[in-house]
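seq/struct pair 1
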Amino acid sequence: MTSSRGRAVAPAQMLIDCISDLRAFVAVIEHGGVSAASRHLGRSIQSVSRSLAAVERAVGTELVRRTTRSSSATSAGAALYRRVAGALSEIDQASAEAAGARDRPLGVLRVSAPPGFAPVFVVPVVAAYLAANPQVDVELKLEERYVDLVNEGHDLAVRIGAMPDSSLKTRRLGGIRNVTFAAPSYLAERGRPTHPRDLASHACIIRSAARDPGSWTYAIDGELASFAVAGPFRTNNTDAATRAAAEASGIANGPYWNVRPMLDDGSVELVLSEFEPPAIPVHAVWPATAQVPAKTRLFVDQLAAHLKRQQL
């Protein structure tokens, strides 16, 4: 593309040149001449004159009537000034807001998080964050799937599990223990498994929404191994599986944070703890940008600090 100055430029540079020319035009009108405008803008008289000429060339008419002593707007120049001065003010305000969003938390923070995890661990952070940052609104969407942050307009996501390679920025927030448990009355009746292979002879509560519902993973001699499980009760809900275990319906497997209240009150007991696999990572992810907005950066910091204090 070719600019009003007659040189080949990229579209972004052309826009910058156009705004610069319009600023010079407005300054000439407001300060009564090219010389005064050049002093106000800190530009040379020749530079301001070229900008004014570029604007007149672009609109195809004289905008400023020049004499040896003064300059004044033509009727066309006065009409253009009224519109352009307001537009430049809006551009300045938008630029200030964009810079402020980088340095201060502003606007709407859109967060995606897993349905079971978010109400317990993300919502308390949202409440504290909103209290500390009154110029930010938070929109929290609970979704099992991995959303496309850029195309779906999200600022941030909380994700559980191994992170695939991507261009997203990530920060590990913690790790979730995956434990096996059962009610004391069930264990008294059916016996306590001492090795994952013993599960084949037990009624296991199957979480149908798990990635591989028919097998549970354990660490055997430093290596991960899967063991087939089966039972008469299946559910797609983690809370339901935990409650069923407390009701002595069988042995369940799930996140430690979910079962912890029932461990504390003795409703269930851990089994096979010596074979517990490594913790499942929890990450915050956000689009890669040159400058992370303050609203995102501060929320991630608060979430990381909160989860560090939790027993996941």
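seq/struct pair 2
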Amino acid sequence: MNDLRILTLHHDMPDVKSYTTILFERILPILKSKKKVHITWLVHKNEKIEKKEKISNDITILDIHDFDNAVQVIQKVKPNLVYVMPGLNAPDYALVLAAKYFGIPVIGGEIGIEFCTKNMKIQFLKSLITQFFQKSISSHNKEKPQLMGKGRFFIYKNIFLLKTQIAIKQNKLKIIKEFFWLLFMYVSRSRNIRFNSKFSVDLHFLDGEIMINQLLDAGFKKSSLIVTGNPIYDTIFQEMQEIKDESKYSKKNRVLLVTSNVFGFEHNWVKIKKDHMIKKVISEIKKHNKSSKHNKPIELSIKIHPSRESLEEYRNLIHKIDPSIMIYQKESILELLKETDVVISTSSGTAMVYGLLLKKPLIIHDCLELDHDELLERELVVECKELSNIIPSIEKAISFNPPTKNIDEFFKDILLKLDGKSAERISDAIVNLLDNNIQQSN
């Protein structure tokens, strides 16, 4: 097979950073060195996108609103490989069903370890209800918010799945049973969702060895699991030797506060907690900078989620207190960390792992009262229990050296190898899967 036609989904345009977009940034150059590759992005937003169809010889962007079901998507794109995020998202699941119907190999990623957990079923249910009836603001017509915009799109996505099931002639009784099962799983927000073998595909790329036994116990086939490491960290391995620690010579301690998106949704309870943390941190730093007793002033900047948080809301919150604070959203977290002396967050997550790799001092203030936080439990970060102690925590973090054994065990469990070759291993696995599929069909 000389030509590789990949079909994948994304919740936004491909220029919005996510695990999926970064994955393809890493693997496409390697795949293109071996095959002619064309990738089609099926974008599923609650509103139609402006820019679509073929934008280059090797990239096409399609809008889910132009299709009734995933079968139509497959018939239009004619892919020989489909990539999804295994789980409850209806368009992903619909595409898996359609691809399997046509005998097309499906690969999936990011069934990674949960960095932090909390039993939030009641809060999550409240968030679902709130979001369902929430108005959505169209980027085309901001003056007329759409009533129940998110709720309507949730219904649309599940009708898309239903029409896919009908198109592949799935048994009606099975469709009904599956509808209620999916609804229950979605509302209950069970921790076992990601590990349910119903969502298994032909090949899963795992970040670390710690995931294998959990997935085997859940019923996944051993042949479908391959430990590759996480490609979103590859660039750091290539650059971290070149980064020099200049904090000793800096006239300021540059602090980056990262607003992690822990639960995949922004319930009002979570927002209140995070807003309080941000305001308190700003207040304590302002008091510190006004004091004549400190050695170095602190320069604070804030990085919010690239797509799930509102830049305007954070500007309204933060700039009322201090308009000089920089707020970043779309910018590369890696580039920001290079210019940072200390990182603060509410919990473990990708940004904190980046910081650990770059040997940055890390602070977690667990304002969300999590049941489990990976970096805290492994003693790899400084914990600030009371925000009134954030300045002493910053000073403590700068001189804090996590035990080398803890760091080594963390990376072995979570990221397999510190060699920057995760994308290469994934690319090789894809080529092998396609070659084996051709041999079996002959």
